[in-house]
């Protein structure tokens, strides 16, 4: 027959080639039983590709929407060059026979990286040729090119096919950091600087350009809810600045790791506010994020849809994760809590129990949830440690032991001047209003399989933190970890 068909075949032969193991669905115009012209193919891994078929054989270009690649077909066989792109980021790469080339444009600056084996070299210019409808760069390494430090070793949780993407994003972020680190204003921040910014905001409000001045009084009440009488503490507010006053930096953590707690502590210690997720609400009218208005912006390294629907969305999309690190220029605070407690806390958050908590903990559904979530726990750590040029790591367990020390560490890292009055007032504040009263479990709620996976990923995280000279995981403070 002839016409447009969608095929989910048990067996399809085209020119004596069996397609069944490779595709799930083929949507194309069939002429006398043979697909012709533009076709949509769903591969066995779920990726969809648009290709041009001639007598049932792919020729010309193919565009894959999952791997974000454009390939060239020659009589049904994929060849080089293969172009790869990242949604929302000005960086692309082209894979050649033995090398690949990355092109990045950052703030109007364009740079070229050649990756040959385990070495990276930056080039000033290249020439172009056209091969089967795709541009192919031509160059020659002379030996005097400037070397670029690549990611040398990838943790086993990163698929080999995704390693190119990590190198691309690292190159883009490194350029961005090189261009913008000179603009950092953190070193100028002290109480006088904050007061001056607050006066500017007040003037804008008087002129009618602003609805209100956002200030939080962290030291208005003591932990028991009583008014604080100390005038020194009462006057220490935390201000939200005008947009673009500060570099956009993340306070990133897996859910249930104390992000809200650390936000309160940082606000009290610095006099600057922190912000909600950049995609905080599922309706744009509810999104309060204003780039550069807050010292740090909360991030769980997951799209907010997960919070809205209160369901496990599976592993977060890799392209979105890369965009998220780029958005913050790879800079900020990485807060890590042991997965045993963090995932249990996240589970309770998802259940939204009105009274009792830890219901169904230990059930098969809980074990399945834990196996999925610990992958997100390690993805977050791996992405930020591998890609960030400016990152300070804080461990929940260490924060619990000495909150002042960890807040001071963050301020020192960013170069923010420390006000001793604030730390005097902070001594009697814990900001733990958000905590749930959890049960003391008599035994490990995780199955043997889940515990093995936890230990495996904890070891990967530990090795990575040490390799990149970050403070290692305080494993001696982890429950159930032998």
Helix content: 25-40%
* Count of separate DSSP helical elements: 12
Strand order of the largest sheet: 1-4-5-6-7-8-9-10-11-12-13-16
In round numbers, the mean pLDDT is: 84
Note poorly predicted spans.
1-5, 16-21
Biggest sheet details: 12 strands, antiparallel
Question: How far is the first residue's CA from the last residue's CA?
Answer: 66 Å
Strand fraction band? Answer: 25-35%
What general form does the structure show? globular
* Total DSSP E strands: 23
Using the CA coordinates, give the radius of gyration.
26 Å
Helix-and-strand structural type: alpha+beta
Care to describe what's here?
The chain is of the alpha+beta class. It has helices at 163-180, 191-206, 231-234, 259-270, 305-309, 318-327, 339-351, 364-387, 396-401, 403-414, 420-426, 448-467; strands at residues 2-7, 13-14, 17-18, 23-31, 34-43, 48-54, 57-64, 69-74, 77-85, 91-95, 99-106, 109-116, 119-123, 127-131, 134-138, 146-148, 215-216, 238-239, 250-253, 274-275, 296-299, 331-336, 390-395. The longest helix has 24 residues, at 364-387. The N and C termini lie far apart (66 Å). Mean pLDDT is 84; it is low at 1-5 and 16-21.
Question: Can I get a quick summary?
Answer:
The chain is of the alpha+beta class and 482 residues long. Helices cover 30% and strands 26% of the residues. Strand 9 and strand 10 form a beta hairpin.
Keywords:
single chain, 482 residues, alpha+beta, twelve-stranded antiparallel sheet, five-stranded parallel sheet, 23 strands, globular, disordered N terminus
